[in-house]
Amino acid sequence: MADVRDILDLERPVTPELTKESLLTKNKKIYEKKLAVKRPEGMHREVFALLYNDNKDASPLLPTDTGTGYKQAKARLGMKKVRRWEWAPFVNPARSDGAVFHHWKRTSDEQKEYPFAKFNKQLEIPSYTMTDYNAHMKTHPTKWTKPQTDHLFDLAKRFDVRFIIMADRWDRANYGSKTVEDLKERYYEVVGILNKVRGSPEKKIYLFDADHERRRKEQLKKLFDRTPKQIEEEQMLLNELKKIEARKKERERKTQDLQKLISQADQQQTEQQQQQANAHKKHDKKLKKKIQQQPRPSKVDSVVNAVETAGIKFTDLRGTGVSLRSQKMKLPANVGQKKAKALEQALQEFKVDPNPPPIEEICVAFNELRSDMVLLCELRTALATCNFELESLKHQYEALCPGKTLNIPAALANPAGEDCTIDAHDVSGLV
Length: 431
Known about the structure:
mainly alpha; flat
């Protein structure tokens, strides 16, 4: 580059002088670049900062303690006189053999009772006499004898009623073989008898069920002796049971959902029926208003219509499943209370049994009879209404035509008669 600059007559840049200081600063920068360590990817900045200190030195391999922070003061030995210790003998009060033991203790300490003797708790094993045994505890000789019972209570005193150890130390050569359940049963039986005889209310009588304990251990042994195939089969049955319970819960849930849908449908149906009933009521009110505005028909026409629609239409029970024949004689719901009372009075008037035996022929004849009786009552009511209507027409005619009398049956029988007769149109006009 310097030769090219000389050929082209270009000025050469001023080069700094090479000194010792410039070389040292250059080498220092290179050394600092080499010492800079890049933080690995995935490592948090706080964790990376723990690896190096401010001087960029590596962390020490062994923990060091150069600070003067909070520390526990060291014991300053040698300031006081050391207390003396001695190898002293002691006796354990829990032992009855008088054995002497030794331990270290301070010479200044007083002689005290061995502190661990308080943990020697002795159970109170009841005792009995020969009289008590013969009077209350004598059993069948094949089960328990007095030497066996005495040996049992001796073991209970020696081993603090630890029945497993008692069964292990049982003298089988002299007293026969006994299981743990036999020992428990006999021990609690004798203790209960003694408490009951001596009248100790503060002590509760415990009844041991040896048969139940034997069955329990037998079941545990069977459970422990299961083969892997049996365990697998049992697990499979448990899984099937869980599936059945899950399907049962799902079925119950679907049933509840279906019941909700049915109740909602019923509620909607009742609402629709209520709306229809309200619409019918409004329609009936409108019809009543129109009828009130129109000229009212005569009572004779209403009576005639009532007679035409008289009678009872009994319900047919075919296709409704199983039913009693006596239900055919039941009055329909559309028969009013007034008609029912009139029908009852008519049956009493004609001396007819209101509840005849429900034979097929009797049912048909009884229903027809009651229908005819209702028609008879309607005809009586219609006749009375017509007579009242004719009487009112007669009075109206006499009021309009003073001095003239009207015989309604004669006038209706001979409408083209004399002056005292009237036409049928005139009668309808008076209404």
